[in-house]
Amino acid sequence: MKLGDVWFSAIAEAENNDHMIIVSGRTEIEPFIQSGKFKERVEITWKYEPDSKGMPHEETGELMEKAQFALKQAMEKDKLAIFTGIYTGDGERTWVFYTRNIPAFGRTLNEALEPFETLPITIYTEKDPEWNEYREMCELKGQDDTEADEADDCPEE
Question: pLDDT tens, 2-12?
Answer without folding.
Answer: 889 999 999 98
